[in-house]
Specification:
Layout: H1 2-25, H2 39-48, H3 54-70, E1 86-92, E2 98-103, H4 108-117, E3 130-136
Antiparallel strand pairs: 1-2, 1-3
Amino acid sequence: MRQLCFKLSALCAVALATGCATTSSTSQQDEAPPPANPVFVGEMAKFNAQFPNDKAMKYEDISLAFNNEQKLDEKGNCHDLSKYPVTIILVLDANGKVSSATTDVKNKKADCFLQSYASAQFPKPPSAPYRKPIRLK
């Protein structure tokens, strides 16, 4: 009986140690901020140059509703890869297909969102190329 208790205690200790190791090693609390992407500033300037424009303002509402309805940001479980938000600028062609994208930072979360949106098809924009930023928490 004593030997059985010893084996159970040892097994419990191993299980607890394993559980603690996996939960503390991936903590986002100690995560350093991701490095900035210098290309992003130019892309944001190009987005801002699209305004003021009534058609672009209307399209922002349409494309935001489309993104939320399609839940495009939920593909790939990207949100869990970092505690820091990512802003992505999608470049849409005349048909609304994403032709390229740029993020404000460089990390695994940004890479994940770049992959998730790479094949996205939005409604037709008012002009092409059209830059569409999305802030992803």
